[in-house]
């Protein structure tokens, strides 16, 4: 559950600093910096009523979603959607990803040609996996070919 973020005012998004302090993980800041600096993506806070209700942070570039981040206490969940276009490259690098990500990918059902990967980011190695998947979404092969 999104712990505290679903109890905040739906009309007033939290500040990036407040979210960072509440998550309390340097991995959150590292992924935000990566999306912003590497791809020029702008953060957008949105209030969601879906399966993870509360405030989340979306990164989009050129009209395409790169990822959605769901802040939790001490960690966060990153949603990365792997579509038909990203599938071949993702499956090519899959053996280089963490066992956690390999299992998550295999166990996530495909719907309408997409896998919606809800990735719990609690350690650096998983953060690197997420970065590679985002690079694939953005079409940046130099970042996604097994480089961490």
From TrEMBL:
Skewed-composition ranges (Polar residues): 1-12
Region of interest: Disordered: 1-21
Pfam family of the protein (one): DUF3788
Source species: [Clostridium] methylpentosum DSM 5476
Official protein name in the record: YdhG-like domain-containing protein
